[in-house]
Amino acid sequence: MKDARFASVLTVLICGLALPMYALGSITSLPEPKVAGSVAYLSGGIGQSEAAMMRNVAKDYQLEIVFIQKLKTREELLAGIHLQVQDSHRDLVLDIVTDGPYLLANLPQGKYLVTAERNGDVKEQWVNVDTKKHQKVVFWWPISD
């Protein structure tokens, strides 16, 4: 009887230690920041925890861009968007394919043309970047039935 109780206590103890260690192993970290020319950026947000982390650090960047596919009330976040950012002289300052639905970027102050392309469907928007202010841009594509 004592052996059975000891085994039960030991099992509970081992499971109690293993579960938090398993949970720690599943913690997602932010993607590594990257630099292209004078632009520091993060691209990611795959999965709920990484998306939440990207939203939490978004205010640390002047520009936040989100890529969404939408039909009525249904929304899906998109990755693999070809993104180009040109300055006011139309010089290319960033040309990437996104790793997730969020792109966070620090750009020098100025006016930029942001072009996002998904499956041949191109969206463009001019943005004014102010080094003291956060700006959010959302690109929407329709969900085809």
What is this entry, summarized?
The protein is of the alpha+beta class. Helix content is 23%, strand content 45%.
- Cα shape: globular
Helical/strand content category:
alpha+beta
**Tally the helices: what do you get?**
2
Mean pLDDT: 84
Q: Could you describe the largest sheet, including whether it forms a barrel? A: 6 strands, mixed
Enumerate the spans where pLDDT stays under 50 for 5 or more consecutive residues. 6-26
Number of strand segments: 10
Instruction: Indicate the percent of residues in helices.
Output: 10-25%
Written account of the structure:
There is one protein chain. By secondary structure, this protein is an alpha+beta fold. Helices cover about 25% and strands about 45% of the residues. The chain contains 2 helices and 10 strands. Strands 1, 2, 3, 4, 7 and 10 form a 6-stranded mixed sheet that branches. A 4-stranded antiparallel sheet has the order 6-5-8-9, with no helix packed on it. The longest helix has 24 residues, at about 1-25. The radius of gyration is 22 Å and the shape is globular. The termini are far apart. Residues about 5-25 have low confidence and may be disordered.
Keyword list:
145 residues, alpha+beta
Describe the secondary-structure layout.
Elements: H1 2-25, E1 34-36, E2 39-44, H2 48-57, E3 63-71, E4 74-77, E5 82-87, E6 92-97, E7 102-106, E8 110-118, E9 121-129, E10 135-142
Parallel strand pairs: 3-10
Antiparallel strand pairs: 1-2, 2-7, 3-4, 3-7, 5-6, 5-8, 8-9
